[in-house]
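STRUCTURE:
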């Protein structure tokens, strides 16, 4: 189970649970579930729900089930089931033996529907989908009753069985709850319970020609599993009367539905439907594209499970919906990686530097600290030789006042190595800078001058003879507006995609200690940010994703808000 986190702050759901425990409701049991529909990959919004459900169960000595809400075979696939299982495990949660599927309950759901018919609470309706919509009325106008509403029970039982046996075409009939066509809540206007649909289900194959609707299947599945607190997002608030109605009519165990606000993040879309569009239309390279806020995308980007769990704790749980700044998510991963990520040196846009007074054949093995935040992380040797590379940005031929890094005639420190002074700028025929000629001071080995003289900058570097060539992928926000879902003038969210959300740097050089680093390992490239090895990586060609830069914009946002 997810450990090492601080005690979670209280929230309104905990108050409800504590009240229930006090009153010995449900014999003092707490049992939650995380109920994804396998119609896409999980995203950071789901992480909020996962952390909440599994977190509450852990906190109150309860249980949390993983249940696939798989009642819509047209959109659901085994690929999604597998990805969801992997993601929940990766986040650090364990459902024990309790992996369930709503489709496990298809027979039970069918028998319960028969019970509703027998009690006069459900009827077979021959209206088409369009007609049902037309009869439903509007927020201002009550609906009209279906002409089939008062079918005798026997006829309903017969027709429902024949629906199940595949005697009628798709969409020709439905089973509907008999509630109230004049209800102010449109969900209560005789909602559909079953539809006819010849679609192969990823688990039950062609066994069923009728499939239960979400509102019916969900509450009954919760009841069958003995769920005590059924947590869902705010848009289901208006469905709660229906949730309660089914369970009351069926006279079965009655979990309590509690709604909380969805997580929204700035500069992102948080819906599987929209994410599917991004994937299908090739705006991103798959569900696990590091720019996507899917759990698989965040993992590939280099986010750690702990950073996501901490993020979910920080945002808390409330009734009112709000949008969280992306900078908070970045803050959380930066904070976690600061503790764990080994420091290494990498040069993304290399500029060749020849140390003219350094012996041709010599190599120095310099001692470098792996992680100043973690004394146990130790040190490593970094090779230094006559030709090194520094970052192009770290040199300016004609520097402005505030530029303290390398410039003609100026001395700087090479991290863990020596002081060097720039003596010459060498150009190619076009006049572009090809390389620098510098001298080093052998007395400054390790990075300090015995005479106490100071330099204003410390640069990272790699040795030409030892460095590995690497590809580095830099990421920026996928959208260039704060709220791509409401980009104004009814514009589609795809119109505000950021064309510069990914930059691939081809000729990067990284220090040799990175040889063989496996996919998913994370590092801090000194002065540049946190980077993670991409699965595309090979021994010949390591590939790194920039997880996050070093600069903390969240601290600034917080300060401004105070
Ligand atoms: P989407 O709109 O992205 O398709 P969904 O709600 O349809 O999401 P489900 O698979 O039905 O996706 O969700 C599983 C659980 O995760 C539900 O309990 C749902 O309420 C919760 N959930 C989904 N999105 C969020 C979110 N943004 N914030 C918090 N919880 C969420
Ligand atoms: Mg859903």
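SEQUENCE:
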């Amino acid at each position: 189970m997810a450990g090492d986190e601080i005690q979670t702050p209280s929230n309104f759901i905990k108050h409800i649970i504590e009240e229930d425990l006090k009153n010995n409701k449900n014999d003092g049991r707490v049992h939650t579930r995380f109920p994804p529909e396998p119609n896409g990959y999980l995203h950071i919004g789901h992480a909020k729900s996962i952390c909440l459900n599994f977190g509450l169960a852990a906190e109150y000595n309860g249980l949390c089930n993983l249940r696939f809400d798989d009642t819509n075979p047209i959109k659901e696939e085994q690929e999604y089931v597998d990805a969801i299982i992997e993601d929940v495990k990766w986040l650090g949660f364990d459902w024990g033996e309790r992996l369930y599927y709503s489709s496990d309950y298809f027979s039970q759901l069918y028998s319960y529907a028969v019970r509703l018919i027998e009690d006069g609470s459900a009827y077979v309706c021959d209206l088409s989908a369009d007609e049902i919509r037309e009869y439903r009325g509007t927020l201002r106008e009550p609906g009209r009753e279906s002409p089939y509403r008062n079918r005798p029970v026997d006829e309903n039982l017969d027709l429902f069985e024949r629906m199940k046996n595949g005697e009628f075409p798709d969409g020709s009939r439905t089973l509907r709850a008999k509630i109230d066509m004049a209800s102010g809540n449109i969900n209560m206007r005789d909602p559909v319970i079953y539809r006819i649909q010849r679609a192969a289900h990823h688990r039950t194959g062609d066994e069923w020609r009728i499939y239960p609707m979400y509102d019916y299947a969900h509450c009954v599945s919760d009841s069958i599993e003995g769920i005590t607190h059924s947590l869902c997002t705010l848009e289901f608030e208006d469905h709660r009367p229906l949730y309660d109605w089914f369970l009351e009519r069926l006279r079965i165990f009655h979990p309590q539905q509690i709604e909380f606000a969805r997580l929204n993040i700035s500069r992102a879309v948080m819906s599987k439907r929209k994410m599917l569009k991004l994937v299908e239309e090739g705006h991103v390279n798959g569900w696990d594209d590091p720019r996507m806020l899917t759990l698989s995308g965040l993992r590939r980007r280099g986010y750690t499970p702990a950073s996501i769990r901490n993020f979910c704790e920080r945002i808390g749980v409330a009734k009112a919906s709000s949008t969280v700044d992306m900078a908070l998510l970045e803050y959380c991963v930066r904070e976690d990686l600061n503790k764990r990520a080994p420091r290494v040196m990498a040069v993304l846009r290399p500029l060749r530097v020849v140390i003219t007074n350094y012996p041709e054949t010599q190599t120095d093995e310099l001692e470098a600290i792996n992680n100043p935040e973690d004394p146990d992380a130790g040190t490593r040797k970094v090779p230094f030789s006559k030709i090194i590379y520094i970052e192009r940005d770290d040199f300016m031929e004609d520097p402005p006042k505030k530029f303290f890094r390398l410039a003609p005639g100026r001395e700087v420190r090479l991290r863990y190595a020596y002081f060097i002074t720039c003596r010459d700028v060498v150009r190619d025929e076009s006049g572009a800078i090809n390389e620098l000629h510098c001298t080093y001071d052998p007395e400054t080995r390790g990075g300090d001058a015995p005479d106490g003289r100071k330099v204003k900058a410390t640069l990272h570097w790699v040795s030409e003879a030892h460095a590995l060539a690497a590809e580095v992928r830099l990421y920026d926000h996928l959208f260039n507006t704060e709220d791509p879902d409401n980009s104004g003038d009814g514009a589609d969210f795809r119109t505000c995609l950021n064309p510069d959300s990914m930059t691939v740097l081809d000729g990067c050089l990284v220090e040799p200690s990175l040889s063989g680093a496996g996919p998913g390992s994370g590092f801090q490239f000194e002065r540049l940010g946190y980077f993670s090895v991409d699965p595309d990586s090979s021994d010949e060609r390591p590939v790194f994703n920039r997880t996050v830069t070093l600069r903390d914009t969240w601290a600034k946002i917080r300060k401004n808000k105070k």
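REMARK: The longest strand covers residues 419-427.
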